[in-house]
Each structure stands twice: as C-alpha cells, then as structure tokens.
C-alpha cells in the first residue's frame, strides 16, 4: 500500500536506523527534467510521519546545490560526535564531484555553506555508485566512469585508496555493494561483469561474467546472512532476469529469477529477512521475490501496484523494515508499506493552495476511507519472529523454543568465511518426569515461605564443588547475616577483629 509520496524526480536515501524520527533524503536526479523544465538542484530531507493522513510528506530541511545527483547515500558516520548527530549524507554528481553534507545543519536551516562538510573531485566522470561499509561507517566506496573505484576514509578523506588495478576494459561502474558478513569484501558491477575485491590484498579475487548470454549487469546485492551469495540483475531487455550466485561455485548461477518483462534497474535485499528481495525495472513493475525458494523461475511473493513509468531505484527503510521506497521517472518518490490496511485520503496541500482565492469560499472536502491495493505476504516476515518463547501444555508438558545462532565454518574460493546459520529449536519436556527439578522447586518454595535464606545459601555452598560458585553463594549469604557489612569485609580478606573495620561494620548495622 502506498502511504506517502514526494513530487520529485529524485534519488533518495533513508536515514540510518539509529536516527529518530525516520527521515528520507531526496536529491534531484541528474539527467532528468520535470514538466516545468526547471534546472534547479535541491537536496531535501523529508519527515516520514505515517501518523498524518494523506500522501504528502513535510520538508524538514532543504538546500540548493550546484549539481544534480546520480546517487545519494546516508551513513551513520560521526553520530557519536556533537556536530554530526544525524550522520552524513554523501552525494555523487557529474564531473567527479562528491559532496558530503551534515544533515543536522540542513534540518536546522543553517544554510548551504554550513551544511557542506567537504567535497572532493578525485573521479573523472559522474559518480553513479556509493556505499558505506556495514562494519566501519567511516569507510565509503564510490564508483564512476572508466572503472574508477575509490575507498574513502571519512576521518581523513584527502587520500582515498583503490581496491586494486582498474578492471579492463574500462567501463562505467554501475553499482557498489559491501559484503554483509565480511568487512573487507566489496563487489562492483560493470556492463559485462561483476568484480569482487579483497581490500586486504588490494586485488580482485573473482570475476562473475555472463559472457555466454546478453546479460548486462546493472546492480548487485549481497545475501544478508550467507557471505558467499549475491544477486546480479540484468538491465538488458532481452535478458531481464536476476541471477543468484554462490562464489564457491561461480561457474554458473544457483538459480535464475525470471518474471520481469524488461530490464531490471534496482535490487534491495531485506537485511532483517533474507527471504524478501525487491526488484524494479523497465516494465514498470516492483516485484518481491523469495530468492531462497526452490520454485522454478523464482517465487514471486507479491507485487506492488505502480504507475506507468519506470522505477529506477528501490530501497528498504533501515529502522522500519515494513517500509520501502521507490523512485520513478514520472516525477514521484513513493513509500510503500508491506502491511495491509486502509488510508485516510485528504486533499493534497498543493491542490488546496492552488484553489485558495479571496472570491472563492473553500469547502471542506468530505472525509472518506479508501481501501487501496496492497501486497499480501504468504508468510509473516522474520522480523516478527520471537527470539525465545515458552508455553505450558495440558498434562505438565512445557514447550520451549529458541533461535540459536551457530557459526559454521565453510570453505569458499574467497577465503575461509564464517557463515552464520540460524537453527530454530523446539523443546517439549514433561515437567513431572524431572523429580530433581520438582524437588528443587519445592525446596525453594519452602525457603521463601519460611525465610530460611541463610541456610539455603549454606546448603548451596556445601553441595557446590567449584570455588568460584562457593564464593558467590557466600556473598549472597552475607546479605542475610546479622552484620552484613562485617561479613562482606571478612569475605574481602580484611580481619573482622580489626578495630577500625569493626567500628565501620557496627556503624552500618
């Protein structure tokens, strides 16, 4: 269901998960014109207030920029500092210009000069790819034309490094993505291939190419949990598919998702649920897949109703995983919710202002509730999953479950990588068949009823073979002593007969 929209042809970035309330940064898209043929370039920050009825979003801050944006990224770098509490916004523009802004200064209206932290022009062409490292927020990767990829340390951005020699032949970098599990692995896409880099060795470790087909790589997205798996999307209208690759078996893709009718332009893999992958393309469709399904051609979980124009960008909200955003060429940025519901429709603020006139008496529009089209997920998303739970059943049975995270060592071409696998376990136990547990429970109930706390602690000391646990129980027993302060000092190694400590103990009795 569409819940909010912005009347802009813009590339957008969500605020980091630690920022509250949720904001959406929108930079005027490069190489695009609206119906007014305006050449103005803006960087705006919108407040996502889903409690307010209507589709309009309120602009909380705006600055005019010198260049339009090919890519905008919002990272959490500097949030622990007083001057940048909302992180930083990075914009990639034409002629190799990269601008780094302070969103806090944009929000408080300090102006363009105060909001700009610094800019760099190390690239020779338009910067079309940006990405912050998941583990080290001071590391930023940027990609431009002529196979240029730079790694920036925002603590010292004067000398960026390269991941290795430029990929040959020179081509535009269309996408950059950091691995979600291994911090030194970076993937970049070019028209004919995807190159995976190891920043420790400053060299590419593998090249995934669709040379046997007409596949033109547009975007790459890493699996949120499996370090060696990634999805590649093709923007070629003759091969509009998404391929799931495992770098341990890079001779061919594991599976191919085929449902788009034209080239795919963007991918977004949900960090909280690996079974949800969004894609948008030239066929004016936004499709949600389950890339881990074994369904032939890919399992389509749902499809979001859109306009008759291409959507060129789709992204998950880091703080609220039920929300996604999409940017389209019809001049709108839309925010959708995966949860079903209804929306209170009210006149747009722009329509109201346009019809306001002294000679015309504005009448309040009647309120009505409209049920909008929405997507229904076949199963609940994984962020609704409880980490642990327990329930008693008839006959003294106790059912418990937990989601244990177990590290499994897997051999891969890229290196020995720890892959985190979630193994949900369910336990069914019969309480009455555990006499020791029942006996301990009854003993504890008697102790609580009679107040025999000191004797209970002494019994634990006598039956515990470990010195550390015995000492813990002695400290607990000291709480119930007549002179607890003196007892604590004695346990800490001080002589309880010492005059000074005895007076301190008696003073606190």
* Fraction in beta strands: 35-45%
Radius of gyration: 30 Å
Mean pLDDT across all amino acids = 84
Low-confidence stretches: 368-372, 407-420
Based on helices, strands and strand pairing, what is the structural class? mainly beta
Distance between the termini: 66 Å
Strand arrangement in the largest pleated sheet: 1-27-26-25
Shape: elongated
Number of strands: 32
Blueprint (SSEs and pairs):
Layout: E1 2-6, E2 10-14, E3 23-28, E4 42-47, E5 58-64, E6 69-75, E7 88-93, E8 98-101, H1 103-107, H2 112-115, E9 116-120, E10 129-132, E11 139-143, E12 149-153, E13 175-178, E14 185-189, E15 193-198, E16 203-209, E17 217-222, E18 229-234, E19 242-246, E20 255-257, E21 264-269, E22 277-281, E23 286-290, E24 299-304, E25 311-316, E26 323-328, E27 333-337, E28 343-345, H3 349-355, E29 368-370, E30 388-393, E31 397-411, E32 416-430, H4 435-450, H5 453-463, H6 467-478, H7 484-491, H8 499-507
Antiparallel strand pairs: 1-27, 2-3, 3-4, 4-5, 6-7, 7-8, 8-9, 10-11, 11-12, 13-14, 14-15, 15-16, 17-18, 18-19, 19-20, 21-22, 22-23, 23-24, 25-26, 26-27, 28-29, 30-31, 31-32
